[in-house]
Amino acid sequence: MVDRRQEIIDAALAIADESGLDAISMRAVAERVGVTPMALYPHIGNKDGLLDAMIGHSLGSLPMPAPDQPWQQRLRVFAYAIRALAHRHPGYLELVFSRPAVTKDAVRAIDAIFGALLDAGVPPSEVARVERLTSTAIIGFAMSEVNGRFAAARQPPSVRAEWASAGELPAHHRLRPHLDKKVDWDAEFEADLTDLAAMIESIAQRSVR
Questions:
Q1: What would the 3-class secondary structure string for the chain be?
Q2: Which Pfam family, just one, is annotated for this protein (predicted)?
Q3: Which pTM was predicted?
């Protein structure tokens, strides 16, 4: 038996991958599935329901680390899963970045992060804020990696700053020997996760002083 709801979500994901989020409409999804737009509503609701379902499906498909793993490892599993998701579906990752998690699967994923932060010793009053900070850093890296911000520019950073004197762009001139180095994005992602973990530990330690 066809799971029509899942078929609709898969069609929307495919459209986003092929043409971006702006191409998603109830009509476009219906055409992809082979039904009328009105036939989508009993399964998915309106377009907001469709977008929420896409987020829920994607976050719900992430591997959930075992709750008995160290909190650092649980966050690392989440981070690498988000990065892999970005590479699988670069056309719609912005959706995860721009809409709240409201479906059951999405909320379960957020709850796993909450649990890791609590086990790290982050005060309950700070957990939601630290989750937002951590998730934004991870998703932002993944978006930048797949959607072009980290891509090689037409000119290296040092050349882009040549129009200005050291007095106008002092930091660029001080960093000139470092700006044009080839970046190992795998190593940078790992370093960022290490720094995020250190930040979380510092927040936890601050709370017990």
A1: CCCHHHHHHHHHHHHHHHHCHHHCCHHHHHHHHCCCHHHHHHHHCCHHHHHHHHHHHHHHCCCCCCCCCCHHHHHHHHHHHHHHHHHHCCCCHHHHHHCCCCCHHHHHHHHHHHHHHHHCCCCHHHHHHHHHHHHHHHHHHHHHHHHCCCCCCCCCHHHHCCCCCCCCCHHHHHCHHHHCCCCCHHHHHHHHHHHHHHHHHHHHHHHCC
A2: TetR_N
A3: 0.84
Domains of the chain in start order, with CATH, are 1-45 (1.10.10.60), 63-207 (1.10.357.10)
Rounded distance, CA 47 to CA 51, Å? 6
User: Which pair of tokens denotes residue 100?
Assistant: 């709240």
Is the per-residue pLDDT at 154 higher than 70? no
pLDDT over threshold 90, residue 132: yes
Question: What amino acid occupies position 209?
Answer: R
Least confident of 33-47, 97-111, 143-157, 173-187: 143-157
Find the mean pLDDT for residues 34-58.
Answer: 91
